[in-house]
Design brief:
heterodimer; A: alpha+beta; 8-stranded antiparallel beta sheet; 5-stranded mixed beta sheet; about 30% strand; B: mainly alpha; Rna Polymerase Sigma Factor, Chain: A; Arc Repressor Mutant, subunit A; about 0% strand; elongated
Amino acid sequence: MPELERMLTQLGDELAWPETPDLAANVASRLDEPAGRAERPARRARRQLGGLAGLRRTLVLATAGLLLLAGTVFAAAPGVRDAVLDFLGLQGATIERREQLPTPPPERPLDLGSRMTFDQATERLGFTPLVPQALGEPDRVYVRQGLPGGELSLAYRAGPGLPRARSTRLGALVGEFRGDLSPEFLGKLVGPDTTVERLTVDGDRAIWIEGAQHFLLYRGPDGRVVESSMRIAQNALLLEHGALLVRLEGAFDRERALVIARSLR
Amino acid sequence: MEDRPPHDEELVARAKRGERDAYEEIVRRHQQIAFRTAWVITGSAADAEEAAQDAFVKAYRALGRFREGAPLRPWLLTIVANEARNRVRAAGRRERLVLRVAEERRPGGAVPSPEAALLDFERRDELLAAVADLPENDRQAIACRYFLDLSEEETAAALGCPRGTVKSRLSRALGRLRERMEAADA
């Protein structure tokens, strides 16, 4: 080893490191925390979800969503079984950080379901749709069926203060669905260089995803990834708002996303 | 014959079967490197403790997905480093990492190696000052790779960047340190 590197290694031995706390005892006592109890086989957790439809947000549900993800994302990219680096979840969405992302899916037109008026959408959806007042009336409204309560998409054209996103070619895309009924519906797959940050937005749990390329995907009722749904996504804020999981996607920054999220009515 | 300590792989298999003792052993075995790595990233002992503790709890829950036969330490360090970075981001700022030499050279009464004894105090202090003046990213790379003696793969895991980036940061940082040491010798 060259002289300088040898000196650095020695220096490491001589540094005043802060004393390492005894983590083992604390960790051991925390393994029984509520979230830990959800470590039942995924199948059992999934069976339970059917009977828990009306249940409010619980840690158990959120964790069940995480557990179910494990097998399903691998199914999307069997060639890339690299180490899963981290998991984060909300009710309705899971984020998996991977050492390596699968090959980017081919670019396809967005499939947001059927286009309709906002009033028609309100009738069809199993929830009261929210509109971000900061963005005003959406330019297009879509509803996708196939999941309990349906999924609403509000599309906003790019314009001043709302740059066009490469992923959607829109200024903003707002998605809403019942996260409590489909706790594993939406998935994000991010690589090591993407920023993933937990936030609280007016008391709602949220996750901000920004930076390097990452993927968005959907899962069917059986928990399997709908491969055709996988696409490259731009910056996104995922937000648990009551029973809803709201997703804001665009080329905007975090501050702008927060303003938009706070204006949901 | 005395029992050899179990390998990580064996402990992981036992922990996956629900043996808590095995997981506690894993924590004990890796807590120092986990805590120190988190400290290098956060610059704060309190944040490092929280990050490392949360990471071990998270890792336990993710153990079922840990690839059999893969080395455990880089995987653990990745989770630790993510937790640590999340704390830095949430706080919106990072404590400045204060690196100094311990008063007693070898705590625990370990005998210094002959090489260590040869390390000139002045040169050592000069080197430490040079490391402290490095840009944040480069200093973290040096701290992980040399002070913590992490492998290149582990350093990449800890810094959340590809190995190529680690190599380039290290090479740049070493270049700067070399220049500074040469200037001091001149």
